[in-house]
Design brief:
Blueprint (H helix, E strand, L loop, with lengths): L10 H12 L16 H6 L2 H7 L3 H9 L14 H7 L3 H9 L14 H7 L3 H9 L15 H8 L2 H9 L14 H7 L5 H13 L13 H8 L2 H7 L1
Helix pairs in contact: 1-13, 3-4, 3-5, 4-6, 5-6, 7-8, 7-9, 9-10, 9-11, 10-12, 11-12, 12-14, 13-14
Length: 235
Amino acid sequence: MNILDHGRIPVFITSTLLALICAPLLPIVSAQAQTPPSPLEVAAYTGLHRAATNDDAAQIRTLLSQGADPNIVDSAGRTPAHVAVFGSHALALRALVAGGGDVNLLDHERYDLVTIAAVANDLPTLELALELGGDTTLITSIYDGTALIAAAHLGHSAVVQKLIDAGAPLDHINNLGWTALIEAVILGDGGPRHIETARALVTAGADRTIADRNGVTPLQHAQARGYREMIEFLR
Protein backbone atom coordinates (compact mmCIF):
# COMPACT_ATOMS: atom_id res chain seq x y z
CA MET A 1 0.00 0.00 0.00
CA ASN A 2 1.28 3.46 -0.83
CA ILE A 3 2.12 5.40 2.32
CA LEU A 4 0.13 8.35 0.99
CA ASP A 5 -3.09 6.34 0.57
CA HIS A 6 -4.58 7.63 3.81
CA GLY A 7 -3.87 11.25 3.05
CA ARG A 8 -1.04 11.74 5.54
CA ILE A 9 2.74 11.41 5.44
CA PRO A 10 4.37 9.58 8.34
CA VAL A 11 6.17 11.79 10.84
CA PHE A 12 9.59 10.30 10.17
CA ILE A 13 9.30 11.17 6.48
CA THR A 14 8.13 14.72 7.04
CA SER A 15 10.91 15.35 9.54
CA THR A 16 13.53 14.02 7.15
CA LEU A 17 12.15 16.16 4.34
CA LEU A 18 12.27 19.15 6.65
CA ALA A 19 15.89 18.45 7.49
CA LEU A 20 16.74 18.22 3.80
CA ILE A 21 14.89 21.44 3.00
CA CYS A 22 16.48 23.33 5.87
CA ALA A 23 20.04 22.10 5.27
CA PRO A 24 20.85 24.59 2.51
CA LEU A 25 19.32 27.37 4.60
CA LEU A 26 21.56 26.89 7.62
CA PRO A 27 23.27 30.12 8.57
CA ILE A 28 26.97 30.37 7.89
CA VAL A 29 28.49 29.91 11.33
CA SER A 30 32.14 29.99 12.27
CA ALA A 31 33.50 28.83 15.59
CA GLN A 32 36.79 30.42 14.56
CA ALA A 33 35.66 34.00 15.07
CA GLN A 34 38.34 34.65 17.71
CA THR A 35 40.82 37.27 16.62
CA PRO A 36 44.42 36.78 17.75
CA PRO A 37 46.63 39.84 18.04
CA SER A 38 47.69 41.10 14.63
CA PRO A 39 51.38 41.70 13.81
CA LEU A 40 50.75 45.44 14.18
CA GLU A 41 49.18 44.94 17.59
CA VAL A 42 52.01 42.70 18.70
CA ALA A 43 54.57 45.27 17.56
CA ALA A 44 52.81 47.92 19.62
CA TYR A 45 52.48 45.84 22.78
CA THR A 46 54.24 46.92 25.93
CA GLY A 47 54.35 45.64 29.49
CA LEU A 48 52.52 42.45 30.30
CA HIS A 49 51.07 42.04 26.81
CA ARG A 50 54.58 42.08 25.33
CA ALA A 51 55.87 39.70 27.96
CA ALA A 52 52.94 37.33 27.33
CA THR A 53 53.63 37.44 23.59
CA ASN A 54 57.23 36.43 24.29
CA ASP A 55 56.31 33.79 26.90
CA ASP A 56 58.59 35.68 29.27
CA ALA A 57 57.51 34.51 32.71
CA ALA A 58 60.42 36.25 34.45
CA GLN A 59 59.45 39.62 33.01
CA ILE A 60 55.82 38.99 33.91
CA ARG A 61 56.77 38.36 37.53
CA THR A 62 58.91 41.49 37.56
CA LEU A 63 56.15 43.66 36.15
CA LEU A 64 53.58 42.24 38.55
CA SER A 65 55.88 42.90 41.49
CA GLN A 66 56.04 46.51 40.31
CA GLY A 67 52.26 46.82 40.43
CA ALA A 68 51.22 46.01 36.87
CA ASP A 69 47.56 45.04 36.47
CA PRO A 70 47.42 41.34 35.47
CA ASN A 71 44.02 41.90 33.83
CA ILE A 72 44.84 44.96 31.77
CA VAL A 73 43.24 44.77 28.32
CA ASP A 74 44.25 45.85 24.84
CA SER A 75 41.93 47.59 22.37
CA ALA A 76 40.19 44.27 21.63
CA GLY A 77 39.61 43.43 25.27
CA ARG A 78 42.37 40.82 25.37
CA THR A 79 44.13 40.41 28.68
CA PRO A 80 47.75 39.24 28.77
CA ALA A 81 46.33 35.79 29.57
CA HIS A 82 44.30 35.83 26.33
CA VAL A 83 47.48 36.70 24.46
CA ALA A 84 49.35 33.87 26.19
CA VAL A 85 46.67 31.35 25.18
CA PHE A 86 46.62 32.53 21.57
CA GLY A 87 50.37 31.85 21.54
CA SER A 88 50.17 28.56 23.50
CA HIS A 89 52.52 30.12 26.04
CA ALA A 90 52.23 27.99 29.15
CA LEU A 91 54.97 29.69 31.19
CA ALA A 92 53.43 33.12 30.67
CA LEU A 93 49.95 31.88 31.49
CA ARG A 94 51.05 30.26 34.73
CA ALA A 95 52.91 33.41 35.81
CA LEU A 96 49.96 35.65 34.99
CA VAL A 97 47.46 33.54 36.91
CA ALA A 98 49.83 33.20 39.86
CA GLY A 99 49.97 37.01 39.90
CA GLY A 100 46.20 37.49 39.90
CA GLY A 101 45.23 37.02 36.27
CA ASP A 102 41.58 36.01 35.81
CA VAL A 103 41.24 32.96 33.54
CA ASN A 104 37.52 33.53 32.97
CA LEU A 105 37.42 37.06 31.57
CA LEU A 106 35.88 37.53 28.11
CA ASP A 107 37.41 39.66 25.39
CA HIS A 108 35.33 42.01 23.26
CA GLU A 109 34.29 39.08 21.04
CA ARG A 110 33.14 37.29 24.21
CA TYR A 111 35.78 34.58 24.22
CA ASP A 112 37.54 33.20 27.25
CA LEU A 113 40.74 31.19 27.54
CA VAL A 114 38.98 27.82 27.51
CA THR A 115 37.02 28.55 24.33
CA ILE A 116 40.05 30.00 22.53
CA ALA A 117 42.11 26.89 23.30
CA ALA A 118 39.19 24.59 22.43
CA VAL A 119 38.63 26.14 19.03
CA ALA A 120 42.36 26.02 18.30
CA ASN A 121 42.32 22.29 19.11
CA ASP A 122 45.14 23.08 21.53
CA LEU A 123 44.68 20.32 24.08
CA PRO A 124 47.75 21.10 26.24
CA THR A 125 46.76 24.76 26.62
CA LEU A 126 43.14 23.78 27.27
CA GLU A 127 44.25 21.39 30.00
CA LEU A 128 46.35 24.13 31.56
CA ALA A 129 43.51 26.65 31.42
CA LEU A 130 41.24 24.13 33.14
CA GLU A 131 43.89 23.33 35.73
CA LEU A 132 44.18 27.05 36.51
CA GLY A 133 40.42 27.42 37.05
CA GLY A 134 38.89 27.80 33.60
CA ASP A 135 35.09 27.53 33.71
CA THR A 136 33.53 25.25 31.09
CA THR A 137 30.06 26.62 31.83
CA LEU A 138 30.74 30.15 30.60
CA ILE A 139 28.43 31.49 27.89
CA THR A 140 30.71 32.69 25.12
CA SER A 141 30.68 34.17 21.62
CA ILE A 142 28.03 36.15 19.77
CA TYR A 143 26.08 32.88 19.52
CA ASP A 144 25.65 32.55 23.30
CA GLY A 145 27.36 29.20 23.07
CA THR A 146 29.97 27.33 25.07
CA ALA A 147 33.45 26.00 24.49
CA LEU A 148 31.90 22.54 24.08
CA ILE A 149 29.57 23.68 21.30
CA ALA A 150 32.43 25.39 19.48
CA ALA A 151 34.65 22.31 19.73
CA ALA A 152 31.83 19.98 18.65
CA HIS A 153 31.16 22.15 15.60
CA LEU A 154 34.77 21.67 14.52
CA GLY A 155 34.97 17.97 15.36
CA HIS A 156 37.77 18.38 17.90
CA SER A 157 36.92 15.08 19.53
CA ALA A 158 39.76 14.96 22.08
CA VAL A 159 38.98 18.51 23.18
CA VAL A 160 35.28 17.63 23.39
CA GLN A 161 36.08 14.68 25.65
CA LYS A 162 38.28 16.85 27.87
CA LEU A 163 35.52 19.45 28.21
CA ILE A 164 32.97 16.74 28.99
CA ASP A 165 35.28 15.34 31.67
CA ALA A 166 35.64 18.87 33.10
CA GLY A 167 31.88 19.24 33.52
CA ALA A 168 30.88 21.22 30.44
CA PRO A 169 27.08 21.48 30.08
CA LEU A 170 26.05 18.86 27.53
CA ASP A 171 22.70 20.28 26.51
CA HIS A 172 23.19 24.04 26.42
CA ILE A 173 21.23 25.56 23.54
CA ASN A 174 22.82 28.55 21.81
CA ASN A 175 20.94 31.45 20.22
CA LEU A 176 20.77 29.55 16.93
CA GLY A 177 18.73 26.89 18.70
CA TRP A 178 21.50 24.29 18.56
CA THR A 179 23.19 22.03 21.10
CA ALA A 180 26.70 20.64 20.81
CA LEU A 181 25.23 17.39 19.48
CA ILE A 182 23.19 19.15 16.81
CA GLU A 183 26.25 21.14 15.71
CA ALA A 184 28.37 18.00 15.50
CA VAL A 185 25.85 16.65 12.99
CA ILE A 186 24.76 19.64 10.94
CA LEU A 187 28.02 21.59 10.86
CA GLY A 188 30.28 18.57 10.55
CA ASP A 189 31.15 16.50 7.51
CA GLY A 190 30.02 13.14 8.85
CA GLY A 191 33.63 11.98 8.93
CA PRO A 192 35.61 10.27 11.72
CA ARG A 193 36.24 13.42 13.78
CA HIS A 194 32.60 14.42 13.94
CA ILE A 195 31.47 10.83 14.43
CA GLU A 196 33.72 10.51 17.48
CA THR A 197 32.58 13.91 18.71
CA ALA A 198 28.91 12.98 18.47
CA ARG A 199 29.58 9.57 19.99
CA ALA A 200 31.40 11.14 22.96
CA LEU A 201 28.46 13.46 23.58
CA VAL A 202 25.91 10.66 23.41
CA THR A 203 28.01 8.39 25.62
CA ALA A 204 28.27 11.19 28.18
CA GLY A 205 24.49 11.53 28.26
CA ALA A 206 23.70 14.37 25.86
CA ASP A 207 19.97 14.52 25.20
CA ARG A 208 19.37 13.10 21.72
CA THR A 209 15.74 14.26 21.72
CA ILE A 210 16.46 18.00 21.79
CA ALA A 211 15.44 19.31 18.39
CA ASP A 212 16.36 22.49 16.56
CA ARG A 213 13.93 25.34 16.03
CA ASN A 214 12.34 23.47 13.16
CA GLY A 215 11.66 20.45 15.36
CA VAL A 216 14.36 18.35 13.69
CA THR A 217 16.40 16.11 16.00
CA PRO A 218 20.07 15.16 15.61
CA LEU A 219 18.99 11.72 14.39
CA GLN A 220 16.77 13.21 11.71
CA HIS A 221 19.55 15.53 10.57
CA ALA A 222 21.92 12.56 10.37
CA GLN A 223 19.35 10.56 8.39
CA ALA A 224 18.85 13.42 5.96
CA ARG A 225 22.59 13.57 5.36
CA GLY A 226 23.11 9.82 5.14
CA TYR A 227 25.52 9.70 8.09
CA ARG A 228 25.09 5.98 8.66
CA GLU A 229 27.45 5.51 11.59
CA MET A 230 25.96 8.45 13.47
CA ILE A 231 22.47 7.14 12.80
CA GLU A 232 23.30 3.89 14.58
CA PHE A 233 24.17 5.47 17.92
CA LEU A 234 21.68 8.34 17.66
CA ARG A 235 18.70 6.00 17.44
